[in-house]
Amino acid sequence: MALLLTMACFASCSSEDDVVGPDQPATTDNKPISFSGSMLKEQAVTRASGLEETQTSFTVYGYKNDAFDSSSGSYTSYQTVFPGFTVNWTLNSAYTTTSNTSDWEYVGITSDQTIKYWDFGANAYRFFGYALGKATADPATSIVPVTANANSTPVTLSATVDASSDATIAAAPYFTRLWFSTGNTTIYPDKQFGNPVILEFLKPFARVRVIFTFAEGVQMEHSSLSDISFKPTDATKRIPQKGTVTATYPLSGTETTESISAVPNGYLTAITQDYWEGTDNDPAHLTWYTVLPATQDTYTMSVNVDGETKTTYVPGEYMDWKAGYEYTYKFKILDGGGLVFDEVQVGIKNWEEAGTDYHPIYNW
Q1: Spatial distance between the Cα atoms of 269 and 286, rounded to a whole number of angstroms
Q2: Which of 206, 209, 213 is closest to 341 using CA atoms?
Q3: 147-186 tens-digit pLDDT
Q4: How far apart are CA 214 and CA 302, in angstroms?
């Protein structure tokens, strides 16, 4: 699945204590923050489109680690840089202030949103944030906004979400990956202090589909398959589709990536449709199921093959669904009507638009 993530870029910062006057000239040791927006396609920056095409405002949090224990590889303390600043996009506003180079501005939106600068002596930087979904700005909706617990370690961002329809998926907020860097040019060549920082925004969902293929020589049509059911083997378990999702961002210690988990309260019983490539490689139909992130046990695939029910199993190690990813489970019909689990393909979901968009799968 081609990579297509919503992104936001901004160039750096320091702690609240490092704030200087907005008219102070930038130097190697004193670079003001500036923001831009982009949406990366297939990992190619040159093929980017603007974040502002999807969202014109986001909230950013930023921290710098000012102490490191080399014996344990642990970051032992941090200072707050962005305690949840609002960043807004305005057309043709670039270079009207020191902190705005790409139509994105955060300075002065509230009285405490002052200009920030890099601390090149920091051990590491961490950035993350969120943007509201398309429906959250509508007062007629009852969408629960993002709840931020920024006065803790780690920081958590939570929201109540629903993946059961395109409208509710669009209403859900975007969370970001954790941007982490020590500024080391070898380890983090694309995450240098002083350069634009790219935040990757994603919906807190995963998407799942199943595909049936036929072994070479099998004389059978797709119409011979019916009663498809892909679900947890444990009859007491169901597929999570609604609930509270929480993104957790470590500020210290050894962890340098985010985690997104869910506490579900609404479920899908089974996946009952598949995507068929067809004999001429043209899709007969395409069905994706949007679900909450989850770590699960074994799943069972059951399908009626030419009048006879066949089953096979997918081990729990393949059923770990992470936010922002798509999972394609491929099953093969064998000679004589047997059924086997063939492979799982994992890709990146394009969360720019909700719906059943399809992109080619690469590099498997």
Answers
A1: 19
A2: 213
A3: 899 888 899 999 999 999 988 998 899 898 999 999 999 9
A4: 16
The amino acid that residue 128 corresponds to is: F
What are the structure tokens assigned to 330, written together? Answer: 């491929």
Mean pLDDT of 324-343: 90
Helix (H) or strand (E) holding 167: helix 166-171
DSSP per-residue string spanning 176-222: EPPEEE---TTT-TT--TTSPEEEEEE-S-EEEEEEEEE-TT----G
Closest to 345 (Cα-Cα) out of 358, 326, 331: 326
CA atoms within 13 A on the CB side of 343: 4
- Which residue has tokens 């199993």? 313
131 half-sphere exposure, CB direction, 13 A CA radius: 28
pLDDT at residue 145 in the model:
79
Separation between Cα atoms, residue 359 and residue 350, nearest integer Å: 9
Place of tokens 């770590």: 295
d(CA 143, CA 137): 9
Burial 144-158 (b: 16+ CB within 10 A, else e): eebebebeeebbebb
Contacts of 263 (CB under 8 A, 6+ apart): 243, 244, 246
**For residue 154, is the peptide bond before it cis, meaning its omega torsion is within 30 degrees of 0?**
yes
